Amino acid sequence: MSKNQLIDYVQNFVSLEDDEAEQFVSAFEEVKVKKRQFIVQPNFTNRHRSFVVKGAFRSYAIANDGQEHTLQFAIENWWISDFNSYIYQHPATLFIVALEDSTILQIEYNTEQELKKANHKFETFFRIMAEKGLAFEHRRILFNLTHSAEARYESFLSNFPNFVQRVPQYALASYLGMTTEYLSRIRNNRTDKS
Amino acid sequence: MSKNQLIDYVQNFVSLEDDEAEQFVSAFEEVKVKKRQFIVQPNFTNRHRSFVVKGAFRSYAIANDGQEHTLQFAIENWWISDFNSYIYQHPATLFIVALEDSTILQIEYNTEQELKKANHKFETFFRIMAEKGLAFEHRRILFNLTHSAEARYESFLSNFPNFVQRVPQYALASYLGMTTEYLSRIRNNRTDKS
DNA sequence: TTTATTTCTTGAACTACTTCATATTTATTG
DNA sequence: CAATAAATATGAAGTAGTTCAAGAAATAAA
Questions:
Q1: Residue ranges per domain, chain A?
Q2: Which nucleotides of C are covered by protein (CB under 7 A)?
Q3: What is the mean pLDDT of residues A153-172?
Q4: How high is the mean pLDDT of chain A?
Q5: pTM higher than 0.90 for the full model?
Q6: Does position A52 have pLDDT exceeding 50, yes or no?
Q7: Nearest by CB to B83, which of A83, A138, A177?
Q8: Which CATH number is correct for B2-115, 1.10.520.10, 3.10.105.10, 2.60.120.10, 2.40.50.840?
Q9: A133 and B135 in contact by Cβ < 8 A?
């Protein structure tokens, strides 16, 4: 059952008794999402935080010039939301779309608040999630500031080899801050060299 | 007394009884730091999280080509650390330096862990800090992906007018992902227009 | 209050990356 | 398994931002 997957995940960060684990996962609802289906759209408040059981997602914004810019990817055992929309419960600016047929576990904003209030361990869990997320984004910002387009791609390749096959090139390019044409050139030069 | 400033800050996010507030701030130590003094350096583990009572700081990395890249600024009522070093307690990659003579309140890593264990409210406080930090960095990444150098500078100006006067141009340029020469040109073209 | 050091400015040449246009390959659908 | 759409590739021209060098201005030190 998919909820065991979430329990296993949570147990990596806080150790829960059986009844606590049960209480935690029963706050989530399983949802199936088809490829190309949106779970978040601009102007609608993002009311849920989603844990990916199976499948892949991408969050992105559309800039004034019409170009898409990817903020996050998520595959199995990652979380996805428009985090600004979710935590402040104000309208989203991002799209979140399924890249594959997927299964997610969703928790609603108010339910999450109650969980955190009910049990110190749950509060700790969400604190650790946020801290790890923040540390990750610090590394990302710094890497983006300090490295060329090619180095950013190489780094993504070695850090997230399992994402690369499942993510369209144009989406990866926009995550890494370059055009899909330029990433195409990097990839082809690269394979030529080896 | 400077610890009241921290209490006021914390009360914005969680409401503490007098004895709780006292317990919280007594975990911190006041430290004076002179301009150009470092509080964090690469290879040494960042053992403290620092709350700026008065003054200004900058965290930055030095890339392979020798160039400095700024990750964060902090003035009064902001926090600063090499967050990756602090939460994982492994060696820092960043420098953190005082831009002015400053006063900070520092909490040691283990003391923070005990605080969070001791009181659910303290755990909530650090959870909220991390969530707000993460939401902030998401906005930053997206803005960097979607806007030109000039637009990034204009946005910083309007979002953080009080930082601009206190931060050297080369540091701001490296925060915004451009050279100091280019920022100089943006600034001068700008004043010409108006 | 001169001297040294750090920061900012400006010009000119350069380059990493983009844009646009079109062809090719790969995936999706009836 | 055609037919259509979506994603990737490639050339050629363009540009946003960099680099280097040298001078001017501001800040700190003596």
A1: 2-118
A2: 7-12, 16-21, 28
A3: 96
A4: 95
A5: yes
A6: yes
A7: A138
A8: 2.60.120.10
A9: no
The predicted pLDDT at position A190 comes to 55
Cβ-nearest to B135 among A84, A132, A145: A84
Q: What percent of chain A has pLDDT over 90?
A: 94
Tokens of B183: 């920022």
**CATH class held by domain A2-118:** mainly beta
**In Å, how far is A42's CA from the nearest CA of chain B?**
14
Q: Where are the beta strands (DSSP E) in chain A?
A: 28-33, 38-40, 48-54, 57-62, 68-74, 79-80, 95-98, 102-108
Best mutation target among B13, B126, B143, B145 (most A Cβ atoms within 10 Å) is B145
The reply to whether residue B138 touches residue A61, judged by beta carbons under 8 angstroms, is no
Which residues on chain A are in Cβ contact (under 8 Å) with B141? 71, 137, 140-141, 144
Pair B62, B20: CB distance under 8 Å: no
Nearest-Cα distance to chain A for B84, in Å, is 5
> What is d(CA B17, CA A85) in angstroms, rounded to the nearest whole number?
31
How far does the CA of A35 sit from the C1' of C21, in Å? 31
Name residues of chain B where pLDDT drops below 50: 191-194
